[in-house]
């Protein structure tokens, strides 16, 4: 399965600081999806056209089954990830953002300020995560079962079917 991860940060895109959230996403998703996954990544500044273009490229050209963004989901003027994401979505899945906010609120009351969303484009599931590595870990821990089932539905598989038997 091909997975795209996009770090959205003005400072990381110019090398002012190291991207730690993107590698954390990859590490955690390797635990959620035990099958071999191929990752592609990008770091882009907080610009709606660049974010939307990267999302489209990962979904349409690269055929990523899952695309996960990190950063740009708050309320500062440069936080535009949800706006860019909504431009490319065909179906929005608000439950992902809702559960992340509810569960994160119990840990950090300011998590309610997150505007993260999720949805689909073709057969790709797109998910916005916060920009802080610890918040990425907290949120992805909640979402594994829904991600697996959502991806199965997008591939036209029965998410409750037994895995195919191994042949020797």
Report on the structure:
This protein has helices spanning 10-13, 21-32, 48-61, 81-88, 94-105, 133-154, and strands spanning 2-8, 38-44, 66-70, 91-92, 118-121, 124-129. The chain has 6 helices and 6 strands. The chain has a single domain, classed as 3-Layer(aba) Sandwich (Molybdenum Cofactor Biosythetic Enzyme, Chain A), CATH 3.40.980.10. The radius of gyration is 15 Å and the shape is globular. The chain starts with a strand and ends in a 14-residue tail after the last helix. α3 packs across α4 and α5 runs antiparallel to α6. Strands 2-1-3-6-5-4 form a 6-stranded mixed sheet, sandwiched between helices. The protein is an alpha/beta fold. Helix content is 43%, strand content 18%.
């Amino acid at each position: 399965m091909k997975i795209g991860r996009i770090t959205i940060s003005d400072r990381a895109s110019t090398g002012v600081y190291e991207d730690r959230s993107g590698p954390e996403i990859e590490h955690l998703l390797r635990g959620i999806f035990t099958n071999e996954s191929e990752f592609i990544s990008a770091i882009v500044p907080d610009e709606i056209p660049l974010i939307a273009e990267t999302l489209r490229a990962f979904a349409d050209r690269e055929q990523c089954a899952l695309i996960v963004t990190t950063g740009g989901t708050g309320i500062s003027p440069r936080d535009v990830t949800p706006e860019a994401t909504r431009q490319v979505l065909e179906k929005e899945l608000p439950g992902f953002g809702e559960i992340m906010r509810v569960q994160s609120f119990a840990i950090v009351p300011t998590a309610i300020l997150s505007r993260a969303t999720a949805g689909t484009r073709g057969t790709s599931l797109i998910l916005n995560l916060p920009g802080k590595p610890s918040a990425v870990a907290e949120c992805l821990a909640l979402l594994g079962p829904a991600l697996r089932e959502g991806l199965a539905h997008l591939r036209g598989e029965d998410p409750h079917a037994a895995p195919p038997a191994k042949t020797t």
